[in-house]
Design a protein that fits this description.
- This protein is mostly beta strands.
- It is 7% helix and 34% strand.
- The protein has two helices and eight strands, in the order ββαββββββα.
- The strands form two sheets. The chain has a four-stranded antiparallel sheet, with helices on one face.
- A hairpin with a 3-residue loop joins β6 and β7 (120-124).
- The longest helix is centred in the N-terminal third of the chain and has 7 residues, at 41-47.
- The two termini are 28 Å apart.
Length: 177
């Protein structure tokens, strides 16, 4: 079966940045709905017409992936608002930001604690891959027809990997896996 709109494709991949640094490796196949919300549009376009066993390489620019880095999504907050246990690299849901944080910080974002200073914390609402061009080597492991349920919800439903560009990103859908 060829990959076309509203089919489900099982993929493995290696994701690198443009310097060749490996960012993610998916060894076990994961299913994605073509024609839904599971994959970036450019990935879907490149996969069209391929069959099981195909290997595809492509580069996705930031504006086609997780968007450009936006310095307006950096927030300097008082460290005292967060209590004990705060560590660089940890994630905080915007809806769970403590009272007293900047009210302009969007509640639907997932923030990373980027830096910790003696009195302040830098929260970064950008996706960790924002501003990075991605090189993907994809392997098509399986292709099947999508069910009506998958088509209806716009996803193969694995919940494993949901990617959307920042400008269309819905709450809770900004994690790589």
């Amino acid at each position: 079966m060829e990959i076309n709109e509203q089919c489900v494709v099982a993929l493995t991949w290696v994701m690198e940045d443009t310097l060749g640094e490996t960012l993610d490796v998916l060894d076990e196949p994961v299913e994605f709905l073509i024609g839904g919300d599971d994959l970036f549009q450019k990935i879907e376009q490149v996969l069209q017409g391929h069959t099981v066993g195909a290997r595809v390489q492509l580069q996705i620019e930031p504006e086609e992936a997780f968007g450009d880095f936006n310095d307006q999504l950096l927030f300097l907050e008082a460290k005292s608002l967060f209590g004990e246990g705060l560590e660089e690299g940890m994630s905080i849901e915007g809806s769970a930001l403590p009272a007293g944080c900047n009210p302009d910080a969007p509640k639907y974002l997932l923030y990373t604690v980027a830096e910790i200073y003696p009195d302040h914390v830098v929260l970064d609402g950008n996706h960790p891959l924002a501003g990075i061009a991605l090189r993907l080597t994809l392997k098509v492991e399986a292709v099947r027809e999508a069910t009506e349920e998958e088509i209806g919800r716009g996803s193969a439903g694995t919940g494993f990997f949901k990617i959307q560009p920042v400008h269309t990103q819905a709450p809770g859908n900004d994690q790589l896996h």
